[in-house]
Design goal:
It is a single chain. The protein has 160 residues and is mainly α. The protein has seven helices and no strands. The longest helix is centred in the middle third of the chain and has 23 residues. The radius of gyration is 19 Å and the shape is globular. The relative contact order is 0.13.
Length: 160
């Protein structure tokens, strides 16, 4: 059953294949992702045991990490607004308000939380776990790919 709600992110009509110079533009993102992976493994935020502790309310570790991320994001957004910084296009940086009352956010959160609780990992550190030698992360990767495929099928069949 398809959800009767359109996604707010429209698919791009033109597929672009970047040349060698275009691929170099992804370098900073690759470095940032590698840095995040190292931090995720070293700080144990990708650890199944730490996530298990969080869901059982046995440790403050993950709540501290999540809380500090929220505080950092809030401070960063406040600074961006205060300094009046603009995007590369010259547009003012702004956060689009979410549509209130969307049941798909609740449904998506429940599905994400169930998956997170079942496998003990969120999608962020899948590659870090694989790079660290955790073969069980292949199951997580396959589940993420399957979920993405199903999402694409649902989006394709929604009325536009």
């Amino acid at each position: 059953m398809a959800l009767p709600v359109r996604d707010e992110f429209e698919l791009q009509n033109k597929a672009r294949t970047p040349g060698a110079a275009g691929l170099l533009a992804y370098g900073p993102y690759l470095l940032a992702g590698a840095f995040f992976g190292v931090v995720a493994i070293r700080s144990e935020i990708a650890s199944w045991y730490r996530i298990y502790e969080m869901f059982r309310f046995e440790s403050f570790h993950m709540y501290g990490v999540i809380g500090s991320a929220v505080a950092t994001a809030a401070l960063s957004l406040w600074l961006l607004r205060k300094l009046g910084l603009k995007s590369r296009d010259g547009q003012p940086l702004q956060v689009q308000p979410a549509d209130p009352g969307r049941y798909r956010n609740l449904l998506g959160g429940v599905v994400f939380g169930l998956g997170w609780g079942l496998v003990g990992a969120c999608p962020g550190p899948i590659y870090a776990l694989l790079g660290s030698g955790y073969a069980g992360a292949l199951v997580i990767l396959l589940g993420a790919l399957l979920g993405t495929y199903v999402y694409g099928l649902v989006q394709r069949h929604l009325p536009h």
